[in-house]
Amino acid sequence: MLAAMLIVFLLYRIWKKEQDLNDSTWKVKYQDLDFRVAKNSKSFMALSTAFTQSDGCLTDGTASYTEKYGVTDNTGKSVIDGGDVLKSNNHLAKLKGQIVYLKRLKKQKVKVDRKLLKEMKTLLGIKHTNVASLIGMCTEPGNVSVIWEHCAKGRLCDILENDDIKLDTMFKLSLAIDICKGLEYIYKSDLKYHGNLKSTNCVVDSRWTCKLSDFGPRTIYKNFHNENSDWKTRAESLFWTAPEHLRKWIVQHQKTGSIQGDIYSFGIIAKELVTRDSPFGCEAYIPADEIINKVAATLKVPFRPKFPHMSDDVETMKQTMAIEALIKRCWAEDPQARPSIKRVLKTLNAINPFKKSNVIENMIVMMEKYSNQLEELVADRTAQLEDEKRKTDALLYQMLPRKVAEDLKLGKTVKAESFEKVTIYFSDIVGFTTIAGDCTPIQVVELLNSLYTVFDDTIKSYEVYKVETIGDAYMVVSGLPERNGDKHASEMAYVALDLLDGVRNFRMPHDPEGCLRIRIGLHSGPVVSGVVGLTMPRYCLFGDTVNTASRMESNGEALKIHMSSATANMLKETGLFELQRRGDLTIKGKGSMTTYWLEGIKKENISSQDSSKQYYSHLRENRDQEIEDTESSEEETLPDLCEKIKHSDVFQDGQNKLPSADLIQLSIKTPSLQLFDSDQEDADH
Q1: Most exposed among 507, 553, 676, 682, judged by the fewest C-beta atoms under 10 Å?
Q2: If you average pLDDT over every residue of the chain, what do you get?
Q3: CATH: 2.30.110.10, 3.20.20.30, 3.30.70.1230, 3.30.300.20. Which one for 412-623?
């Protein structure tokens, strides 16, 4: 009877074991995974890494940990095991209300045999604070994936790569100890060893606890390697592999592992923690496959990573040197010479200067540092954002009036506005068609840019607004967008005299000995202003005043300021300017009009000191600044260009006595894109 009961009990145990083995609750259907969670699972690590990428740290020409050592999805895009920074959104999913991470395998199908069932049972039983939990596996053809616990802070390698994350000695030692505790647990379990330990497989959760992941199923990983990846990528993924296992991989293309191999891998990770650099950062000039061959080779002096020079304080340097010594023991060539995991833990605890501190106190200090670091990061990024906003606004204000630009930024419709009295300035280059015909298109652009840069710099001191430049035509208005009463006519008169004086001293970049002459036209009257267009919006003026000002320019003469009677009457009221009546002139589209020349400023309104200088000293930033005495010798005074044209004695032996003026290269006030063709035929204005 007793024997029968024992037999029944044993049979029940066998049956129960088989039932547990055949339990398929770990199998996950692909349709049960909700991938929409990927967009909402960003953390501090994701934000800081995104900021780093925006500063140009992750560009097409810069390889990151993700690109070098990361897993790849079915589209070949790099991903991060922790799931914080994703280049594709199909590696994070929600399963039964829990966020999980999918490691996709480029296998079309997986054979679920007894060996795999036993291993899955073992893996599902692995539960430890420093070991990531295996959730299950999807075995559906085309969607073969291993599903792991999701850790919010991402992979250890990405934390080390991110300069925005500040790691002190306590933090680094804490992460290293977490890795050792996870290995110690695995060694005591049925797994016996990790076999795939690297910084890309160490993940950090929201509490900054480091966990080991991707340690199985070995049945699938043993003979699996990505055939689609190039040799360089595969070689870089072997940087953490011990030399004895590298030799077998090179010959048989099989992944093997051992406890001693894990100790070697830990040494490489510890080196990354200390230096915050890639495994072979100092050997980056050596090709990856050559590094692997050197590590695997049996040499008298084994090839190992070098430590860069580190400028730490004395106390930190002592700790670093002690960790370096431990690391070098971990990657010894002889596996038996490497320390055990208990010895490694004991050494780390001895090095740790915070081992006597209370754990809660250490956690509080760490959280305070984390909070301060986050505040600094936000403040830094906010300052960068504000600086970029200022640059954008400055460029926008050069293209449009400030009030109009502000309305457009707020999404408001800019309504047309009427101005009862403004003065408009038009000028163009006399003989521009001939000049352009003798130049290349590049020379034409340089000529206009140099000239308009001088103009732009000149009008800064006046209450005027540059409307636009069209080819060789330059248009300015006073009295809008900010009204200035009756000052617009006198302001524009000063501008015209000043610009004319600037042209007299201007030298063409391609022909310094040549002369440049312009015609200037002024007219005062009502206009309507408004913004036209959505793509490249333009601030334009409309009304008969614009046409009349243009006619004043086209009917003028070289190096003279031609104006209508409306502008002349306003200038007469000021009593500041010398005007000469030109007479009645037939203007196209206008009929007969009485027009005037602006000769300059009346002598009684010019001090004896500045009689030979500028007309615009009243508007300089320091209005009380004295103008130096300019009563110089006849040889130092610039002759009028009109006189140059009339008298040949200005030139002697083909040499021009006129000194050439310095040229400003960029036109920064309302820059305009113009197209020029040396073969085009323009009508001379």
Answers
A1: 682
A2: 76
A3: 3.30.70.1230
